[in-house]
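Long-time lurker. I teach an intro course on protein structure, and each term I like to show students one example going from raw sequence to a predicted 3D structure in token notation. This year I'd like something fresh instead of my usual example. Would anyone be willing to generate the tokens for the chain below so I can use it in lecture? Attribution to the forum is fine with me.
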Amino acid sequence: MAHQQIASFIWSICNLLRGPYKRNEYRKVILPFTVLRRFDCVLADTKAEVLKEYDKIKHKSDNIISATLENITGVPFYNTSRLTMKTLLDDSENLAINLQSYINSFSLNVQKIIEYFSFSEQIARLHEANLLYRVIQLFVNDDLDLSPNAIDNMQMGLAFEELIRIGAEQSNEEAGEHFTPREVIELMVNLLLSPETDLAKSHVVKTIFDPACGTGGMLTAAENYIKELNRDAMPHLYGQDWNKESYAICRSDMLIKGEKATIKFGCSFEQDGFPTNKFDYMLANPPFGVEWKRQKQTIEAEHENLGFAGRFGAGLPRINDGSLLFLLHMISKMRSPEEGGSRIAIVFNGSPLFTGDAGSGESNIRKWIIENDLLETIVAMPDQLFYNTGISTYIWIITNKKETHRQGKIQLIDARLFYHKMRKSLGNKRNVIGDGDDGRFDHINLITRIHGDFIHNQELEFTTNGDTQKAVVSKIFDNADFGFQKITIERPLRLNFQTTEERIARLDDNAAFSKLSQSKKKDPTERQREINEGKALQKEIKEALTAMDSSVLYKNRALFQKEIIQNLSQQGIKLPAALLNAVIDALSERDEHADICTDSKGQPEPDSELRDTENVPLTEDMHAYFKREVLPHAPDAWIDESKTKIGYEIPLNRHFYVYQPPRALEEIEAEMKALEKEIAELLEEL
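-- Reply from a regular --
Happy to contribute to a lecture. Here you go:
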């Protein structure tokens, strides 16, 4: 029986579940039962020997028991129960209790998998609905032979992956949390591995890591790619995930296939499962736009205390989007170029391309990645590819082993039009990248070829949803093309001054002036005395200002300050510098024709309201830019170089923008008249 037939047969058991279970819950029953039945069949031939040996060694340490029994089974798990899934049916009255006892007799690794499936809840639920006996009966039916003699590990793995896929698609919105569409994984693996030249070497060993492995689809696809090239290759898989069900599915899938896989449970940021490991290849589809508030303390402590000796030295993104943290985590696990280097493929939404101004965490991360020549390629993908979101996505390829002709360069690929509409949408997934299986245009191989061609302004003809299109699909840039200098443009402060009634009244809104009539004294008498003295001083200041000639408009601050001090002195008033400045500020107004206000060193003071910034390409001299773009419009402006920041962004959409001329007015007018006529006819029918 082919793996598709096995998967279809198993999934047909879901017909029993209709009613008590919703469609998106079927996998909660089907997947753990498939795992149990496969393991039950795998252990059948050695069961008698395991039970006999267990009776001899059951009082010894867990390590001795595990090593001994696994040596007998030939697989990294065992079961010490005298029951099998078939014999469970002999005692229908105690079926739920016996099934739980049977599960608890597995080795600890399998027990943890079943626990993370939350299978105890399903046992109770099936028992309550009187379905448990019937479900087990179908799984142990002779028509479904899951023994290794009938279906080998590879075929069983394919069948289980098909069940994972069906279950994920049934989940629709929920699926995207732990399942990446197959065609996206295939493309990522192609981009990651197609440039590699040593994969065909005999018995080559490669390590593959996914820090957000979900159900393990990316790890499996990468392994299959290598195995298809070289049957003798030995890929070692590593993954981590903190979703219990995803971990359980991934771990059981690897055990079913007999993979050399190490899958850890836990948050990659707080509990790095592989703190000292380095990997050849890494893939990930981290959650889009998920905040890292829960891990904030751990991440910030590592950033501040370890810097570049840790994972997050390059910077920290905004708290509400931790996507780039996954990439930094993966980069920290790259082999050095001397050790052969590493390649990374990761899926992002648009945020990591441009979010964050110069000097922000996101910009600093992009700056560090690009200036270290780690970014090889970004592919803009079609929207509506994922189950739980319709947004556009981007595949980033990161490596520290660039081919010579790619060094110092970044390739952008526009594949937004490379898709076919699905006959039936699955959640938000309405588009699929054509894989040629049904004769449609093969977009996966096309994108892989474009990546390999590495041609600037490459223009191709392709098919999108049955229509032929022609567009520029690839552009090559220097690393520095994505950098910019954010310069601060200052213009001088120019103020006029006048002692009019209106301006004097503004003093009441000035914090320094209003504080004169306030007191922090605790003693009531002292507090009231201080308040009275402050009010008296406020009145004296206002009277002194009112006595000045309100018709005179001063356009020089130094001159006005001199006049103010002189008039206040005549009234016996001497103000501290801060209060004097507050008074002068209240009596001022901006005036582009006034003299420039200067500081104590005679330098022009900047006007914060006229302050502006400009983003100057890193490839251009900022002074030449300033002279050309700013001075003709603001001759008195200058650059405050102490505030200059270097930023990086990747405006991919802008680089592939194609101007579309507006439609002719006559065409728009005709369309509007046709709509008006149609509306009028509909209204007449009412």
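Some talking points for your students: Residues 173-178 have pLDDT under 50 and may be disordered. The longest strand covers residues 467-478.
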